[in-house]
Amino acid sequence: MTRKTLSTSYPRQFWLMFVGLILSTLGTTMIWPFLMIYASETLGLPLAAIASLMTVNATAGLISSIVAGPIIDRLGRKGVMVVGLIGNGLCYFLLSMAHSYGAFALILGASGAFSPLYRVGTDAMLADLFTVDQRADAFALLRMARNIGVATGPAIGGFVLAQSYTIGLYGAAAGLGIYGLMLLAFARETIPAEVAGQASTLRDQLAGYWQALRDRPFIGLVGAFTLVQMTTSLIWVLLSVYVKTEFGISEQRYGWLATTNALMVVFLQVMITRRTQRNSPLKVMRWGAMFYIAAPLLIAFSSGYWGFWLAMVVMTLGELIVVPTASARAANLAPVDKRGRYMSLYGLTWNLASGVSPVIGGLLSDTLGPQAPWFGGAVTGLLAVLAFWWLQARASRQAEDNS
Known about the structure:
CATH topology: Growth Hormone, Chain: A
Helix content: over 70%
Number of domains: 1
Largest sheet: none
Number of strands: 0
Radius of gyration: 20 Å
Number of helices: 18
CATH architecture: Up-down Bundle
CATH class: Mainly Alpha
């Protein structure tokens, strides 16, 4: 695929997903980077208790991801994605009425259950639409679309939320709902005919996870990428609270950190992905994981806005290198008849990371001091580098044995 054929070689449905992701992400990122601030100010609880809301969200997402894969493999991608988008939009609307820990936990749990339905569906649909050699570029472009929304959402949210968090929550609900209706009206089902025609029970579909769990290269990728996601979720969930409580940096100024991340993805993602494709995926991911050591250390030693901005730049460079490469490799390792289940397990990396990392970070902060979570994040980044190095060495030994 050449650059000049980019727009003509990609199907219309891809561009529908591209536009829909911009709209939905613009809405959700008006509120998501600031959600822990909103919960903290509404509930007035310690940081560890507030961070535990993300554990509720992630746990529900983990369970939903396990069920989502077989459902998507059996029933198709489109309908499940529509339900996930509209259901999650309703959760954001209901958050505007929540005033207790129980209400927040219930609604964020429901949101966690709906999110994997469209996330796993998107990964499976993208794998359906593209061949192996096109997938890295396709995943990179879809990340670019998501980050066009992220580039504007937090910046707008920083201004809007200074006046009213309710408007931000309504904006998130509207963005998700509009994307869901777009898919319902204009998208076609993409599940391969040979897969859709298979007759099997949900129990049989769930049993198909056993093959993925025994797939050592795939599970190794999932484990290593989970370590990367742990550092990522730590920064995204706790940094906004940290910079406001410790340094008095407002939501409006913090929003530009998230916007920096998004603008880098928009303008650099496709170029970096095309350059890194020249190398072994595992080597590329090992290089990228090194940035996840440096970013939290920069946060730990920074005492002003521009230090935190530099940390976001460093983390984003790692993200640009690692994330599309990992997504494409996961899709390429997945058998066509188990694509939903493989991508579902791959999607668990974020649920596992965001369920564990912020709570550990909150406990470290409450017990050892506000800088402690960032040293923990650097250790996790180091473990990710070592994990990718081990996977690369193992793959090289296997290649030598087979030659």
